[in-house]
Amino acid sequence: MEFGHINIRQIMETVISKNGIIVDVRKAKFFREGHIPMAVSLPLTRIEQGQVTLPKNKTLIVYCETGGTSTQACRLLHEMGYDVINCVGGLASYRGSLTK
User: Fold this and answer.
1) What is the widest separation between alpha-carbon atoms in the chain?
2) What Rg value do the Cα atoms of the chain yield, rounded?
3) Which of 48, 78, 67, 58 is nearest to 9 (CA)?
4) d(CA 68, CA 100)
5) What are the tens digits of pLDDT across the range 51-75?
6) Domain spans of the chain?
7) Which of 10, 16, 19, 55 is the most buried (most CB within 10 A)?
């Protein structure tokens, strides 16, 4: 793998230190039900279809529910030329508040 990994609990400090973008790759329905503050929704299906318009000069900090989908999304985003970091453990391990 050619991208970094962090524990989901480090997501806020990482996004600030990297001046990055938090990316939720779960289905839009789940994003609307609750997501990490400041996250943008970019479902894996859109990434697979090449429908990614995020800036390539920002680090993308990617998460999903448990970590599997975000790993797949990171592989694809990395192949597209993005600097990505995968959040191990996903939302299931996140202990902060969520935004709806």
Assistant:
1) 32
2) 12
3) 67
4) 23
5) 999 999 999 999 999 999 999 999 9
6) 6-93
7) 10
- Amino acid identity, residue 63? Y
Query: In the numeric block, which tokens belong to residue 68?
Result: 């599997």
Output the pTM of the full model. Answer: 0.95
- Cα–chain-centroid distance for residue 68? 11
In this predicted model, what pLDDT tens digit does every residue of 33-53 receive, in sequence order? Answer: 999 999 999 999 999 999 999
Instruction: For residue 41, give the nearest of 58, 65, 24 by alpha carbon.
Output: 24
Strand 83-88 to strand 21-24: parallel, antiparallel, or no bridges (unpaired)? unpaired
Residue 96, token pair as written in the block:
């902060």
Residue with tokens 């279809």, as numbered in its chain: 49
Tally: H helices and E strands in the chain: 5, 5
6-93 fold: Oxidized Rhodanese; domain 1 (3.40.250)
pLDDT of residue 1: 57
